[in-house]
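User: Structure tokens for both sequences below?

Assistant:
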Amino acid sequence: MIAADRKTLTPVQRRQLITSPAGWIACGFGSGLVPKAQGTAGSLVAILPWLWMRHLPLPTYALVVAIVFVIGIWACQVAGRQLGVDDHRALVIDEFVGQWIALVPAVLAPWWTVLAGFVLFRLFDVGKPWPIAWLDRRLKGGLGVMVDDVVAGIFAAVALGLLARTIGVPLPWR
């Protein structure tokens, strides 16, 4: 049915993802269906809605992230069950939430902070320092898919905020 390495999808599984609302959301509106680097693709696509979100007041921004987080738990739970794998690489809505958290310090900052936030988030998401790796191993289902990326996003946001503050870039909470 599915490769043990969680990297491949059968044509039937692809169809299941793109034809169900939960699958479509979980795979990041199709961005997780690329053949390689699904998480990176999801993180890149997440920047598109962020370009709109960055103009929201910070409490509204946080509310949007929280709502997508909750919807993501449901979508990844359903899609993971359909695929028979808890955290398949194609499920990238967690990348959207994590990337949006990582980019909070960039909402008022120059364009290069978006690039730095993207790189920092990918480093924390792929590198999985403690407690990210611990959470990734312990939590299962939709919550497990989402939580490790939230923490990676928080780590990246802190790192980006410290970098921005060090060089005098305006931050949204100043």
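Moving on to the next sequence.
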Amino acid sequence: MASEVKNVDELLKWLPSIALFGGMEEPSLRRIIAMLGVLEAKSGDEICKQGDSGRSMYIVRTGEVMVARDEGSRRIKMVRLGAGEFFGEMTLIDVQKRSATVVVQKPSLLYSLGNRDLYRLYTEDVPGYVMVLQNLCRELSRRLRVTNARISSLAQEIADDEATLIRPSVKRSKEVSKEVKDDSK
């Protein structure tokens, strides 16, 4: 079944349309396609759980998944992702636990790429590896900009100049205090 859902020619056309694989050369794409795992998931399946260790990211080929954060007994729906979108990429960069839970909303075909696959790409194809990382950084930057805009919007709703929705930088505050003391001497 995996060979039926992992058609190389189709993936060679489709993958470059995804931000993560944009601008990649065909040999690098072929190498990545060979590494992709295949997961067919039904509605309600939990692909990854907040707080668990992660080793793979996922690319949605068909269907829809929902990314949510569990805060106490409450599940906060963050975003729905469909074909061409990906999730779990942070696990390829850091060794932190999963930051969200992802649940299948509509039957989905997902491709996975693990941290060992990324390392193998590094050992076999440095230019391909660099392109994936560069694209990944661009996507994370884009997502951070969206998050910053949302935080700003929430802060405006509060309309309290003294309130903040993020913690102060403890390290930076200590450095500034030291600089102020040093300048006063």
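User: Anything stand out in the second?

Assistant: Strands lie at 37-41, 46-48, 56-71, 74-81, 86-87, 101-114.
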